[in-house]
Amino acid sequence: MIKTITFACMHFSIAFGVVYLMTGSILVGGAVALVEPAVNTVAFYFHDKLWNRVQQRRQTVSSALIA
Q: Which of 1, 2, 6, 12 is most buried when burial is the number of CB atoms within 10 A of its CB?
């Protein structure tokens, strides 16, 4: 979970910086920095869980083939 939180902080900062540089608006930059990374962070959390399951299944299959 710590990995997800640090990813979120990084993503919020990048999203704000990019949108602020594009628009010059702190309000728009802040709004985008709150909404887009929040959705992306939740998606990343579930993507990471799914990725770990896939890796575990591959290891199980590899172990079964070796044995």
A: 12
What global pTM score does this model have?
A: 0.56
Range of the domain at 61: 2-66
Quote the number of domains for the chain: 1
**The two three-digit tokens of residue 32, written as one number:** 């985008």
Predicted confidence at residue 13, as pLDDT, reads 92
CA gap 36, 30 in Å, rounded: 10
